[in-house]
TrEMBL record:
Entry's Gene Ontology molecular function annotations: metal ion binding; metalloendopeptidase activity
Species classification: Eukaryota, Metazoa, Chordata, Craniata, Vertebrata
Full protein name: Pitrilysin metalloproteinase 1
Gene3D superfamilies in alphabetical order: Metalloenzyme, LuxS/M16 peptidase-like
Coiled coil: none
Length: 1282
């Protein structure tokens, strides 16, 4: 499940703006019902029907006998209607967001509840997890996963904010939509957790008991021990967010994160205030819980418990012969969150900034407080806050809402309202002004003794009694003014406060949290990471940083904001709000934003009405002297309601926290009577029986789901026209228009593109090419010959936005050069050029372009559906532009300047980027360890993932540290390396251009911007990869990294024939092969990576295919079943980890991974027993179970895309030579999955079991790693991440 940062969720709209403003999350803050703004909102509501309202709006806001219509609006800019229905009996509101866009194929519903947290016990968060764990009508133990498995949902999750909870899901299929909604509705209104304490114990917290047979060393359990525990013993052996993306078994995306088209680049995840969302991260499938229910028949363990062993220490606590600990899914999740210093900064600042309202409390739960929560207190909170009259239901769709209104009405009429507390809806109170500043200093776990500092203002505290300080910011004009100011202060690396702190030399990177508009009042935060006690003592740091910030603000008031920067801020806002309308799941983001406004009784349509308010702001900036600067003076400089927090890194802190947790348990248990202790043992045994119980096949078959016949028969094909151009081409648009009329020529162009740009590397056997062939091809080729450049043109509705991509194949780069791409890519976007300063360049870029992005795209070299070669990989540098069509000429000129004129002598900027990237990795390690671990463990197995890790993972982190040291001692080497990279990458050899826009915008590209496009293409065409270049590479640095020259030199200096074949189709792949950098067949890799943390991430990976074997697509179905059933039930539900996933790649690599996991050996044992769990699943699997898994797999393939998403999907298909026939065969094999495939996959896992034992990596703390090595497995290597 997702714990949303109290600050707020990055919604599209908010994120739009907030991407703009500074990599933090923003939102809105207005006033209550007596404010001027609310009055304006009421005037806008209940608008009369007139000719300004489209007919579709009238058609899609029907009257209904069971509801009153309280509000009705239409927003022209977003072409969206907003209608509020209130149920006449239940008083539940249904808010309908209507659309008439035929491309809005996704329907979304949400249940929004105001859930104020009055303690740090995490009640709202635990409740959010527990609610979806079974209900009165849907009495299934693992309801959430049952629901997910047989659905075509596009998103399925729940979200905990500081003061609200949202349960949300969506689907493209109408039948599926109402199935999913029916389950959610029953869960929200009648959850099983109110009657089943075991759900609360599983999701929240409980005493975990492990039977100890020997308190000094770990030994296997005896048969008597097992019998004593009634088959309730722990599922495996002894002891164990992924944030990303694919969703599998958890809520965080561990599951995948590895897209074939991955775009790598780590530069900085540091971000601001988001730290809590660190807690999880977005998973469509996710998260939630599994727990409940009854109809169970099997009490045996899914995994084999005969090996439950336990190591103990003197500070452990025992009840009889049971070792006691505390576990729970939310408990583990929040221990991971609290290991992140950015989270600590965020939570601590809220405590001090909001001392008198609920924003000072942690709705997610403080691990120190969660065990103080009782089941009765938990239930009471539900009855108080989940009263139907307090719940709002959202429905976003282009369909008529009548069907939904009927479904909700029928359900609400069946409820028993007597059980709910009839309290009035509780509002968040405004925090009154308190004069500061205030200072806080506390410790956190850090082995390098690095420190962090943040300064946070409450920008609009309520006026205090007996005070004449009035900091009111109630109007929407104030809000949009603050958004602009946020951009000006921290929106870019050249913004006022960001730049001042970056250049201060006190810290290594800026914490650019910026404006937080997601709470009842606005806050603003800025700070530094990587502060070390060198030339300045920690006692002085808070005051020194404060002075730097305040001096920068005062300078702004005196000198004024940069006018170009103001224009850039406005462009960013307008572009982002326009682009958000092209998002497939935009309704999801709209709901988040509207719910936030409603939570504080504010205008729900504020963001959607941005044009009228932004127009006022523009006019004020133009006509009112120092308009924006006056906000700085009043709300920043003169405002003393602020806090400065210093987090002091302490290498002993984590170990001390572990000891404190153990002491807490000891103190608790020692106070209990023998009867109470016996109760704990009995409850735990009952809980284990419950955890190991499964829903019967018969009961599962009763669960509502769509059928195979509801699925699309074919995979969506994406139209594309391939057009060849060059720098001198005249009248491009006419030529292209003529081409579109010639289907035969279009087919010929497509075939030529595949032959010359996709398959051309297959010159010799497999993917090898001769270096001498390359040399010969380029010799004497200095004349100016304009090369044909392929353009993949996608005509589609984009609302006047143009998407341009320039892809450059990276075959001629070495591994050393690839390791510089993280730095290189970031530098191109932020650096000064030979024409202008970095500030002028960045601001002009932001003013003219919506987004300029650079990433590395990694994919299979040939058909990704038939890969059996671990070196099958290719890499492209992707230079990408998102912009309004009339800005194309200026955008192309700025692109040319960025790529051609970037001044690589700028050592200060390079060092700043390196420090930021290094600190970004450290933040990501704590917040999203699963992502880093997944990259790392798979990098041992194939070239693609080796390079991904080298560019954006742990290897890149090590390389960045090395480059940083070189930058301080011999910067000239780095400058030469960067120049070489530019020369080798940006040439027309192997360059591909992609253009996506609506038909009318083609003129803006081909005609209006013709000379500008020609200039850019001419630059790419002007550089030739000639023979002399191979020797020139050596001028950069005499090292083995100049791989091409090394081979040629070796050939010329010996009479022996040297194999100069470039293996794997690229210099970097050749280097991987020749140096044998991947894991060797018999090599054993067992590694602990340690850093300050109280939870673990565990991964095991192996290859199950032989060299001549290919992936059977049915195994995709099997792996989905494995993730959503066995792994979820054991690692998460039974053993308390927050994240668990499993993944299979096209090349046969299978990876199992957990994160925010309290266990080590237990989790490894679960992974070892996967084949047993899989066979057990297959033994009891019904035909309907199998259909669920197939539907889930097809749902992943058919996930809706729009705009740029379609473009990237198409390009991935084309560049990897995936044909329509391939997709058809792949889909058909998935549809034809049988039970026998489950047994076959289990056999493969058994056959390759030893392979998995040879590749194990665990992230944990130093103490736990040492203990494990000493007591369990001495073969592990310990590596400290510092």
């Amino acid at each position: 499940m997702k714990l949303m940062k109290v600050l707020g969720y990055v919604t599209t709209i908010g994120n739009c703006i907030h991407t703009i403003l500074g990599r933090s999350e923003k939102r809105t803050n207005l006033n209550f019902k007596n404010s001027m703004f609310f009055t304006q909102a009421l005037k806008a509501s209940n608008m009369p029907v007139n000719d300004k309202v489209p007919q579709w709006v009238i058609d899609k806001r029907p009257n209904h006998n069971s509801y009153n219509i309280l509000d009705s609006r239409y927003n022209k800019s977003f072409d969206m209607s907003y209608t509020v229905y209130e149920h006449k009996i239940a008083k539940t509101q249904v808010i309908v967001l209507g659309s008439n866009d035929p491309l809005d194929i996704d329907q979304t519903f949400a249940f929004y509840i105001k859930t104020l947290a009055h303690t740090d016990k995490g009640i709202p968060h635990i409740l959010e997890h527990s609610v979806l764990s079974g209900s009165k009508k849907y009495d299934y133990k693992e309801l959430f996963m049952v629901l997910d498995k047989g659905s075509l949902n596009t998103h399925l999750n729940a979200y905990t904010y500081n003061d609200r909870t949202i349960y949300m899901a969506g689907s493209m299929n109408n039948k599926d939509f109402f199935n999913v909604m029916g389950v959610y509705m029953d869960c929200v209104f009648q959850p099983n957790v109110l009657y089943n304490k075991k759900i609360f114990q599983t999701e929240g917290w409980t005493y975990e008991l492990e039977k100890v047979t020997n308190t000094t060393e770990e030994t296997p359990k005896t048969n008597e021990d097992e019998q004593a525990e009634d088959s309730s013993t722990n599922v495996t052996g002894s002891s164990t967010n992924v944030t990303n993306t694919t969703n599998a078994t958890d809520t965080t995306n561990a599951t995948d994160t590895t897209n074939v088209t991955d775009t790598t680049n780590v530069t900085d995840t540091t971000n601001v205030t988001d730290t809590t969302n660190v807690t999880d991260t977005t998973n469509v499938t996710d998260t939630t819980n599994v727990t409940d229910t009854t109809n169970v028949t099997d009490t045996t363990n899914v995994t084999d418990n005969s090996t439950n062993i336990t190591s103990t220490s003197n500070d452990d606590t025992f009840i009889k012969d049971y070792k006691v600990s505390i576990k729970g899914i939310v408990y583990s999740e929040m221990k991971g969150v609290f290991a992140n210093p950015l989270s600590l900064l965020y939570y601590e600042s809220k405590k001090k900034i909001f001392p008198d309202n609920i924003h000072s409390n942690n709705s997610g739960g403080d691990p120190k407080e969660i065990p103080n929560l009782t089941y009765d207190e938990f239930k009471e909170y539900y009855y108080k806050n989940y009263n139907p009259k307090k719940i709002k239901i959202f429905f976003a769709s282009n369909r008529n809402p009548t069907e939904l209104l009927n479904v909700v009405d029928e359900y609400l009429l069946q409820l028993d309202y007597s059980k709910y507390r009839d309290d009035s809806v509780e509002d968040v109170k405004l925090q009154k002004y308190k004069k500061g500043p205030f200072y806080v200093r506390q410790k956190y776990g850090n082995s390098e003794k690095e420190n962090l500092l943040s300064i946070t203002w409450l920008l609009n505290p309520e006026k205090a009694k007996n005070s004449d300080i009035d900091l009111n910011l109630s109007s929407p004009v104030d809000y949009f003014s603050l958004i602009i100011i946020n951009f000006l202060l921290t929106g870019t690396t050249e913004s006022v406060l960001y730049k001042a702190l970056a250049q201060s030399g006190i810290g290594e990177s800026v914490i650019d949290a910026g404006l937080d508009d997601t709470l009842v009042q606005y806050t603003y935060s800025i700070g530094l990471k990587g502060i070390k006690e060198n030339h300045i003592s920690l006692d002085e740091v808070p005051y020194k940083v404060e002075n730097i910030v305040m001096d920068a603000l005062k300078n702004v008031v005196n000198s004024g904001f940069n006018k170009t920067a103001i224009e850039a801020a406005i462009n960013k806002i307008e572009f982002s709000l326009k682009e958000t309308q092209l998002k497939v799941l935009k309704s999801k983001d709209y709901i988040f934003d509207i719910a936030e406004k409603l939570n504080y009784n504010k205008n729900p349509m504020l963001i959607f009405d941005f044009e009228q308010y932004l127009a006022v702001v523009k006019d004020n900036i133009k006509n009112k002297p120092k308009y924006l600067e006056n906000y700085i003076q009043k709300h920043f400089i003169d405002n003393k309601h602020r806090v400065t927090i210093l987090l002091e890194g302490d290498e002993k802190y984590t170990a001390e926290q572990i000891k404190l947790e153990k002491q807490f348990i000891k103190n608790r248990i020692e106070k209990l009577s023998e009867e109470e202790k016996e109760t704990i043992i009995n409850e735990y045994k009952e809980l284990q029986i419950y955890r190991n119980t499964e829903d019967t096949p018969e009961h599962l078959d009763e669960f509502p789901m769509i059928s195979i016949s509801d699925l699309n028969e074919i995979t969506l094909e994406i139209p594309v026209n391939i057009y060849f151009t060059n720098a001198d081409e005249n009248n491009n648009l006419n030529l292209y228009e003529d081409l579109k009329l010639n289907k035969e020529k279009l087919t010929e162009n497509f075939n030529n593109f595949v032959k010359n740009y996709v398959l051309k590397k297959k010159i010799t056997q497999d993917t090898s090419v001769k270096l001498h062939d390359i040399k010969k091809h380029t010799e004497g080729n200095n004349e100016s010959v304009k090369k044909q450049i392929p353009m993949l043109i996608y005509e589609m509705p984009t609302m006047g936005i143009v998407y341009l991509q320039f892809l450059f194949k990276l075959d001629n780069l070495t591994l050393e050069e690839l390791s510089y791409l993280n730095l290189f890519n970031t530098l191109l976007l932020e650096n000064k050029t030979h024409k202008r300063s970095s500030e002028d360049f960045v601001l002009l870029k932001e003013k003219s372009i919506g987004s300029m992005l650079i990433s590395v795209w990694l994919s299979s070299l040939s058909d990704k559906l038939n890969v059996n070669d671990k070196h099958n990989a290719q890499a492209y540098l992707n230079f990408e532009l998102h912009l309004i069509n009339h800005n194309v000429p200026e955008a192309l000129d700025l692109s040319l300047e960025a790529l051609k004129e970037s001044d690589f002598s700028n050592s200060e900027k390079v060092i700043e980027i390196l420090n930021r990237s290094i600190n970004g990795f450290k933040s990501a390690l704590v917040a999203n360890s699963h992502r880093i671990l997944l990259k790392l463990i798979r990098s041992k197995i194939d070239s693609k993932h080796y390079v991904r890790d080298l560019i954006s993972g742990y290897r890149n982190y090590l390389k960045l540290k090395e480059i940083l040291e070189l930058a301080k001692t011999d910067y000239s080497k780095i400058e030469k390396r960067l120049i070489t990279l530019r020369d080798k990458i940006f040439n027309s050899d192997n360059m591909i251009v992609s253009l996506a826009c609506d038909t009318n915008s083609l003129k803006n590209v081909f005609v209006d911007a013709k000379p500008h496009l020609q200039n850019l293409l001419s630059y790419f065409d002007s550089y030739k990869l000639v023979a002399d270049d191979f020797s020139s590479f050596n001028n950069v640095n005499k090292d083995y990294g100049n791989y091409s020259q090394h081979l040629l030199d070796e050939q010329s200096n010996t009479t022996t024939e040297v194999n100069t074949t470039i293996l794997g189709g690229s210099f970097w792949n050749d280097e991987i092969i020749r140096k044998e950098l991947l894991k060797k067949k018999d090599e054993v890799i067992k590694e602990f990576f340690t850093y300050p943390t109280t939870v673990n991430a565990v991964a095991m990976s192996g290859v199950i295919f032989e060299a001549d074997e290919y992936l059977n697509p049915s195994f995709i179905v099997v792996m989905l079943a494995l993730k959503n059933n066995y792994l979820w039930s054991t690692v998460r539900v039974l053993n308390g980890a927050y994240i668990v996933t499993g993944k299979i790649s096209y090349d046969g690599t299978v990876t199992f991974l957990s994160a925010r996991d309290p266990n080590l050996e237990k989790t490894l044992q679960v992974f070892r027993d996967v084949s047993k769990g899989l066979r057990k699943m297959a033994d009891s699997m019904t035909e309907k179970d199998l259909q669920r898994y197939i539907i889930s797999a097809i749902g992943g393939i058919d996930m809706p895309k729009r705009g740029l998403g379609l473009v990237k999907e198409s390009m991935d298909r084309i560049i990897t030579n995936e044909t329509q026939e391939d997709r058809t065969n792949y889909r058909n094999q998935i549809m034809n999955t049988k039970k026998e495939h489950f047994y076959k996959f289990a056999d493969l896992l058994d056959e390759k079991a030893n392979e998995f034992e040879k590749n194990i990596i665990i992230f944990t703390n130093n103490e736990k790693a040492k203990d494990y090595i000493e007591s369990v497995d001495k073969d592990f290597k310990l590596i400290n991440i510092s």
